[in-house]
Known about the structure:
oxidoreductase (chains A, B); Ald_DH/histidinol_DH (chains A, B); 2 domains; Ald_DH_C (chains A, B); 21 strands; Phenylacetic acid degradation protein PaaN (chains A, B); Aldehyde_DH_dom (chains A, B); seven-stranded mixed sheet; alpha/beta
Amino acid sequence: MTVALSTAQLIEKHRPTLDQALDAIRTRAYWSPHPEHPKAYGEGGSLAAHEGQAAFDALRGTRLDLGQPGTDGWTGDEVSPFGIELGVEYPHPDVDALLPAMRAGMPAWRDAGPEARAAVCLEILARISARTHEFAHAVMHTTGQAFMMAFQAGGPHAQDRGLEAVAYAFAEQTRTPGAADWSKPQGKRPPLELRKSFTAVPRGVSLLIGCNTFPTWNGYPGLFASLATGNPVLVKPHPRAVLPLALTVKIAREVLDEAGFDPNLVALAAERPEEGLAKTLATRDEIRIIDYTGSTVFGDWLEANARQAQVYTEKAGVNTVIVHSTDDYQGMLGNLAFSLSLYSGQMCTTPQNLLIPRDGITTDAGDKTYDEVVADLAAAVDSLLGDEARATALLGAIVNPQVGGRLDMAPELGEVALASRAVTHPDFPGATVRTPVIVKQDGARKQWDGTDADAPYLAECFGPVSFTVAVDSVEDAVALLRRTVRDRGAMTVGAYTTSDEVERLVEEACLEECAQLSLNLTGGVYVNQTAAFSDFHGSGGNPAANAALCDAAFVANRFRMVEVRRPA
Amino acid sequence: MTVALSTAQLIEKHRPTLDQALDAIRTRAYWSPHPEHPKAYGEGGSLAAHEGQAAFDALRGTRLDLGQPGTDGWTGDEVSPFGIELGVEYPHPDVDALLPAMRAGMPAWRDAGPEARAAVCLEILARISARTHEFAHAVMHTTGQAFMMAFQAGGPHAQDRGLEAVAYAFAEQTRTPGAADWSKPQGKRPPLELRKSFTAVPRGVSLLIGCNTFPTWNGYPGLFASLATGNPVLVKPHPRAVLPLALTVKIAREVLDEAGFDPNLVALAAERPEEGLAKTLATRDEIRIIDYTGSTVFGDWLEANARQAQVYTEKAGVNTVIVHSTDDYQGMLGNLAFSLSLYSGQMCTTPQNLLIPRDGITTDAGDKTYDEVVADLAAAVDSLLGDEARATALLGAIVNPQVGGRLDMAPELGEVALASRAVTHPDFPGATVRTPVIVKQDGARKQWDGTDADAPYLAECFGPVSFTVAVDSVEDAVALLRRTVRDRGAMTVGAYTTSDEVERLVEEACLEECAQLSLNLTGGVYVNQTAAFSDFHGSGGNPAANAALCDAAFVANRFRMVEVRRPA
């Protein structure tokens, strides 16, 4: 092994970025070292647009050999939601060989200390950043996100979330000094004196169970939080979205190796069709941390069964927007139309239930009845997606047949305010592109109050399906919001109101039910988007997720502090 | 309700102490605001020795009315391990009435913010501190600790641990600012601007399940961590050790009330004999946090079944000391003899297994065979406890018949190196006072290596029973240490060695198995004692405990951060 990168050099290179990240998570001001604009890439070693495209094309139909120990064959059958087959093969793990190999490098990684680990993590992120254009295609063709979203959310925004996790991990590990002298006075006798050392030690192998829709954005926080706190990380991607995380693993292994650490500290566990590898891995004794994004059913299973591990889950939720009143009716409609359309509503943060008083709302454009609001929203969505090119650039593709199935069934749930229509993608005729459906619902209290209530809007309907729910009063809207968050969880809550009193009611509901609230968004910020270093993604305090991205609780229990005391 | 204490005044009064505590947990230097010496009390409103005695005497045979709602009768039958009946009666809760009442004050307590909550907690601690002499008797006569230990461990040291938890809680809650302005550049267009507010919100009612041996020391960290992060705290004491926590609850309720908060934010849940109230409470939906110290069986049950709550447990462990070599043989023997004798070995931190090479050890007093080391240690304990007054002052009383039973059975486990003897307490003839027993054990690898090994020293034998285990080599000692920590957990590990190589081996074992290590203690610091603000109690990374006292992980998940975003 040739140590091409000294950790001292890496620290010198990346410490300023780390310090800026530490400052940003403290001030929560806007900050990012990762450019959002595709044209910002192509210099300083980063791939330009055409180079990224070429790199992605070159990957297709190849075998991605990561040089991992414990490989017992190859697997992979990803098909892009845009219709092309990726044809990339990945190593399939012999878990009994791979897991012990991953543990071998732990002592040296631990002994490197928090600053060196942070610097290595930042080098990994920097190399990922340089290949953002390549990752954009990998994310696009596994998730169905349109190119610009795949570029931004799968690239700089995901890298931001990874860096944020590294910053939190560094801050937590360095709250206790590496060593301390302790001298306790004993009156006239000499003081008791001890020399103490404190070492952040890892818990064990960390398992990342990736999701289909945001493999990097949802994956990087856990991956980097665990690696930065000294744990090896085994990455088990969603079988439909392997490539972005496989590339991540490859880069991580290269950097670790060049920096003189065991590359097996990061490894990939790609699964065979129907193998259920996550379940097998999750209860292995070596696995001590699990990060998971996906269905509530499997998230609950992990929490109940992976008892040997710290389990961080993001599961399903039902996101609500209360529409009470506004002084910018067109801005509200445009903002909501965008939120419902972005990535075909396939975000864990997309609003599902729009609660609107049956008697209508007051706006700067005059009073509007419930029916008018629904019709105007439907028109706003229609107008936003009227241009086919803009529609495909916003909607992306339907990620999998389950989402398409729910979309097709939605009209059976109530009166359709806006029907979904198919859009032909100009570049990818094989893509399934669909506009969102909006379905009207009766939100009378008897429909949702009581343990046996089963209105469709009380459950998650993941995908481009939203419900405009006619409620009897804004108080009922808040009560329904509370019930939904408490029973089903929510990643986001939105509200539009010009009333201080209503604002107070909604805010109190969100504080008590523990949900993140966006008020009166009418411009270029959307309820379904959060910014690393400033916004928390989820609260970790309602059933949608048991952790927030990113806070101290997300990192503080991934390591433990071991103390050694000696007489001074 | 008359608000006698403004939170502004409380903040002004206590902020300097909070700042010192914040500084101490960062430097890990020695610090405490709570005097250890009994004579330090009696001025500035604190009770002097005779006043504390009188206050305790006045409590006996009374009904401690806390003014709690949801009281359905009275309970209490504590009998001191020193032989006297306390005769104090406590309210028995109607849980269906008490739990909702405890939630009523949550919004105002949340809105008070982290600094006001910390100040209120510090006022509670200050009033407890002023009554340290009274608490000392309450702790002594529920735990069996000798007076001086009950005074120090149950008084200032417990108060230190409570203050430490408040400091960690304050630090975690204030890492994110209360509000932030966020402005994201948009090239030539105007920036996106948001005003964000961040509020630390509580999880729900926190349940403290107290233990018999250290009701305040083990109870205060969880109690104050939860209260300082905005959660109501329901205190369910061990039925044999109610009084110290009942007094704590009474003081907390008084301070909350005077400061204008709902006193029901802290309440007592004393149980009827054989009621099993902890089990009932632990799975209630209102209970969102649980702190527990006690048996592994019930701790494991809580972790598996109280799924709606964050569960922090300190359970049983097997503590090991490796004796390899020393340059202060007498110091080592004296130090170990003290550790084995203090509170009759009834500390979760008391060493149980002393691993000694079969071929003997090297010391400044010449080479010593295994038998010589064991005989010299037995003699050291004998000498330490030879004087009856000193013996009772060190040993205290056997806390309950189960401990006495294990002590009586110990001679059946092997050759007795030091027999236990009964000591008559000069002041309390009804007390059960016993010196420790030391039993020799064969530590040949076949006795402990393998999944079916069942040597007595592989399980916890809580109380004044220790094993001198003859191992074949120091490498075997380290291997046995690893196995014991991994399978049974350990709150403490000790080692005596003059060899850098052996020190390195033991240190690596503790880093990998996640156990707190004390090396070569020969003076007035003992392996079973930890100091708040500097030492971690447990690691939270082995089976003895899933949390450490106190670190960020202990507090960071007791609250969640809720964000509200608005256009700027």
